[in-house]
Specification:
The chain is mostly helical. The protein has 25 helices and no strands.
Length: 427
């Protein structure tokens, strides 16, 4: 059971954890060695991860510094099964099942935190908090990273995935990519590889690297399909369609969109975020093809209380020269807390509203414009980014700041072409 239940890597990590407790409590290695009748060299090797310690020795050492180490393998076996089940349920988004498993684990938190499964339990806890509680605090993960070199391959994959997705969710796409790509090099658990590919694709989308986003999105779709995870496959395909539309590769985008529409209709999948994203692609395709009326007719059949919905609706109305209606849409959206709280849309909505009203003498417009481009990856898609650029230029020109208008246009161009020219060889 030991070889399955307890990766040897856990024992090395616990040796490092013991060292932290020993130093914190003020014990010397030689003092403990005399009391426990163990060579001080052995304790030093255990602390520095040079050997795989005996479980009984670990229990004895932890007890000496006042920590009860849960090491009953028979009792821990049920926990081990729950940890594996939690990973599976999160991947397939069996949410109720995942919550039940997590509740069982949390009942044993005090004992599990110092147990032979400490690493796996901490990783599972961070995973659950990230996915279900939107808790992206990396404090625990940062502490775990000190032990990364002692992890098993599976533990490294879990760590990279959680750290990478957390960084993505706090708008640090390049840092997210750096962690997620480690899993492609490890190439172990194919579900971990598939999710890593998905988030690499979405991170490149936020960095405006369209070719890379498409490349990794296609790889993710293929792997999720092989794992029979239709929801994640569709999400990856939707990112690919989004990027194809922005590159004006409409025929390819339409073919994939038709295929996805058929799949969703046949399976009658209920997918809140993914379905919403997919639903936006239809009017977005029409809008980018120069058919704002058709796009509007499709869009008004759906309504989602998210900033991008109201912004897109207002932009279509602007293209149809229905300025007052567009302003009303923005005015309505600004009453919602979720718009005010969003970095990009709260600022862009203000500029857009003044733009529609032809009010260009807004005192802080330069600060608002600078903030919009300070972190371009905050934009969800090229559509919003392009329009932010157009509005910024319009404000500068209206105020006769032509030099700044030119500088701003160049800055927009430099950001928007990232990944288009430099990565053409990827496809």
């Amino acid at each position: 059971m030991t070889s399955v239940l307890i990766p040897k890597s856990n024992l090395k990590v616990l040796g490092r954890v013991f060292r932290m407790h020993r130093i914190h409590k003020g014990y010397s290695i030689r003092g403990i060695a005399r009391s426990e009748n163990i060579s001080h060299t052995v304790i030093s090797d255990i602390e520095n991860g040079k050997v795989y310690p005996n479980i009984d020795t670990l229990v004895s050492l932890f007890k000496h510094v006042g920590v009860e180490l849960w090491a009953d393998e028979e009792d821990l076996f049920a926990v081990y099964e729950d940890l594996n089940l939690l990973n599976e349920t999160v991947y397939y988004r069996e949410d109720d099942y995942a919550k039940n498993i997590y509740a069982r684990l949390e009942e044993k938190h005090d004992k599990l935190f110092y147990s032979l499964l400490m690493v796996d339990y901490t990783l599972a806890r961070c995973l659950y908090k990230s996915v279900y509680l939107q808790d992206y605090d990396n404090e625990q993960l940062n502490r775990l990273e000190h032990f990364y070199k002692h992890f098993s391959t599976e533990q490294k994959e879990k760590f990279n995935l959680i750290k990478g997705t957390n960084l993505f969710r706090v708008y640090k796409p390049q840092e997210a990519i750096n962690y997620l790509k480690r899993n492609l090099e490890l190439n172990g658990n194919q579900k971990a590889v598939a999710i890593s590919l998905s988030y690499i694709s979405e991170s490149y989308k936020h960095l405006f690297h369209a070719y890379n986003a498409i490349d990794y999105g296609k790889q993710a779709s293929e792997k999720h399909g092989a794992n029979a995870n239709l929801v994640r496959k569709i999400r990856s395909d939707a990112v690919v369609i989004d990027m194809l539309i922005d590159m004006e590769r409409f025929e390819e985008a339409q073919q994939l969109l038709n295929s996805l529409t058929l799949t969703i209709d046949e399976t009658e999948l209920e997918m809140t975020p993914t379905r919403r994203y997919f639903d936006f692609l239809k009017p977005y395709m029409l809008f980018r093809q120069g058919k704002p009326k058709d796009a509007y007719d499709v869009l008004i059949k759906q309504e989602y209380k998210i900033p991008s919905y109201y912004f897109f609706k207002a932009e279509i109305l602007l293209a149809l020269k229905r300025h007052d209606e567009a302003a009303d849409v923005l005015d309505k959206s600004l009453t919602y807390d979720f718009v005010q709280a969003d970095f990009v849309y709260s600022r862009l909505n203000k500029l857009f509203y003044h733009y529609l009203k032809q009010e260009f003498n807004v005192g802080n417009y330069e600060d608002l414009i600078d903030e919009l481009l300070e972190k371009p990856h905050f934009f969800e898609d090229f559509m919003v980014f392009r329009f932010a650029c157009q509005i910024g230029i319009a404000f500068y020109e209206a105020n006769k700041n032509y030099v700044k208008a030119l500088e701003f246009a160049k800055k927009c161009m430099n950001i928007s072409v990232l990944g288009f020219d430099a990565n053409q060889t990827r496809l």
